[in-house]
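Hi U.,

Before I forget, here's the chain from the pilot set. I'm dumping it here mostly so it's searchable later in email.
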Amino acid sequence: MQGSLMLDIAGTWLTAEDRHLLRQPQVGGLILFARNIEDPLQVQQLCRSIRAVRPDLLLAVDQEGGRVQRLRQGFVRLPAMRGLAVCADAPALARACGWVMATEVLAVGLDISFAPVLDLDHQRSAVIGARSFEADPGRAIELIGAFVDGMHEAGMACTGKHFPGHGWAEADSHVAIPVDERDLATIRNHDMLPFQALSSKLDAVMPAHVIYPQVDDQPAGFSRRWLQDILRGELGFDGVIFSDDLSMAGAHVAGDAASRIEAALDAGCDMGLVCNDRAAAELALVALQRRSVQASARLARMRRRSSVSLDYKQDPRWLDAVGALRAADLID
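Structure:
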């Protein structure tokens, strides 16, 4: 059974220290960043070397499209999702984007991309902005649902983020602690609608490092009110809950890395991410070793559901999907 900690590595290959860390049973996943990536063949070789150490690890990347796209050289440069909304055949193009993205990620040996973004575009949050599909909840639900269908057809589980919505809070949770001062009724009737409508289709959810003080004084990812009462109870969500990166400034309200991962798991997260800070990851690991945390059985659902070879560009569906995206001027 997979552990409850997802961490990262520094380079494009595994060091002896990396291998030692990955062998710890409390480690359940590894996420790649741009610094770990050169081209498709190198990523495939890196994934194989990781699986030689731990075949059960969940391997992830952020490959949303637009500016949040770690796999670049040798991969399709997907558009920011906000660009889909103005296209004549937007749902079909969203589905094509989801399928192309997932196919490329699976082909190099990864399991998941943390996508799609369900946040609504209120024209307030610079960190969300064009990552959002739409401002209108109904239109967003249609496009996000199509994107998820494409991911599923390729064989990839999806992760909706950032529950219950990061589009209103103006601060960037990477460097600050955002606050959304609206009441629960307003959030439930607007920003939560995509999560509610798509709850049965989402395989995983990632909560926001945002404080909603009228609901709870803790960020959503540390809040049993948000994760247990509302997400699991009210929305009936039974998928995986991943924390957002616990090294981000928005998570620091919970204390050091050990306190953060404990708070995330206690609130209801199935896996905590500690990235871009090896010392913090080691501190979180020691905390989990002390607690003997029982890993969530839900995590197995996120593993890749199909194998894709690196010659996928010969697939007729690939040619059709890329052709449609190119004809709509969404890709070069």
